[in-house]
Write a structure and sequence with these properties.
It is a single chain. Helix content is about 95%, strand content about 0%. The chain is mainly α. The chain has one domain. It is rod-shaped and about 50 Å long. About 0% of the residues are buried. It comes from Panthera tigris altaica. This is TMEM199.
Length: about 35
């Protein structure tokens, strides 16, 4: 049971980091166009 919770936390953290990375890249693109 603990391993399943740990796996879910890892997946959630990876997805969160990916979303944050995409958001930062999008902001950099917008700033570069100005």
């Amino acid at each position: 049971m603990a391993s399943r919770v740990l796996a879910a936390l890892i997946v959630a953290s990876v997805v969160g980091l990916a979303e944050l990375y995409v958001m930062v890249r999008a902001m950099e693109g917008e700033l570069g166009e100005l």
